Amino acid sequence: MACKNNLVVKQIIDLYDQISKLESLKPSKNVDTLFGQLVSTCLPTDTNIDVTKMSEEVKDMRSNLIKLCGEAEGYLEQHFSTILGSLLQEDQNPLDHLNIFPYYNNYLKLGKLEFDLLSQHSSHVPSKIAFIGSGPMPLTSIVLAKFHLPNTTFHNFDIDSHANALATSLVSRDPDLSKRMFFHTTDVLNATEG
């Protein structure tokens, strides 16, 4: 198993080296291919890598890779939110086309998992939920609102006004979610109750 784990770590380091040298992390064929390879490398469940036993250099690389993944995910969400928002001009509900987002099925599974966890640890259905850092494509909020919590109000917080504008555009044509999903542009560290 150690040999396999070493091979996986080497593959991740090689991918990190390529990803960190990209001029931009915005969606493109090269970016999509590299992150697709990273995801498929990290998905197997038969590896058991103990991060605490890695060298400081590899730990730093891992931290940087997590940041790069977050940045790339932000660009990917912005890209697809813009595409879906353009459907407004065609008088369509963008939420009817969420399946074009490459990781939509992952969000469906994640939403179910989060709902199940919430149900296990709460005796009542919440009337309000807040999401922090909801981004331009707040799929977790959307999935929970559409499929699991049909009477709950969702307050989505993001520091980026452009992200909130895109997110608002996504839900604006949906007769239900447009009344239950709100987007607040603020730094939550400075937010006050209410």
Could you list some keywords that capture this structure?
mainly alpha, 2 domains, 3-stranded parallel β-sheet, Nicotian_synth, nicotianamine synthase activity, Nicotianamine synthase, transferase, S-adenosyl-L-methionine
Short account of what is shown:
By secondary structure, the chain is mainly alpha-helical.
Helix and strand layout, with pairings?
Layout: H1 2-20, H2 29-42, H3 56-85, H4 104-121, E1 128-132, H5 139-148, E2 153-158, H6 161-171, H7 177-180, E3 181-185
Parallel strand pairs: 1-2, 2-3
Helix pairs in contact: 1-2, 1-3, 3-6, 4-5
Structural summary, described in words:
By secondary structure, the chain is mainly α. It folds into two domains: 2-88; 93-190, Vaccinia Virus protein VP39 (Rossmann fold), CATH 3.40.50.150. The chain contains seven helices and three strands; from the N terminus they run H-H-H-H-E-H-E-H-H-E. It has helices at 2-20, 29-42, 56-85, 104-121, 139-148, 161-171, 177-180, and strands spanning 128-132, 153-158, 181-185. The chain has a three-stranded parallel β-sheet. The mean pLDDT is 89.
CATH architecture of the largest domain: 3-Layer(aba) Sandwich
State the end-to-end distance. Answer: 52 Å
Query: What is the mean pLDDT?
Result: 89
Shape: globular
| Rg, Å, rounded | 19 Å
Q: Give the count of structural domains.
A: 2
Estimate the strand proportion.
Answer: 5-15%
